[in-house]
Sequence to fold (72 residues):
Amino acid sequence: MFKLCFAAIVIAIGFSGAAYAQSLSAEERAACKEDYDKYCKGTMPGGGRIIACLRKNPISDACKKVIDARKK
Fold:
């Protein structure tokens, strides 16, 4: 029973960290919206695909700041 509880806690912590890393504020989304619409609109969300798409295109300075801040 202890192992099951421990595994559940570890999984919950792992998912909460992943969800936090993917959440963006309204300002961060706005900074990258135009670049997303221009370069990555057809990219399927999840697995870091949108961030990867944005990184390989000439995005705005505001969006670069958001992307760079998320790397840390």
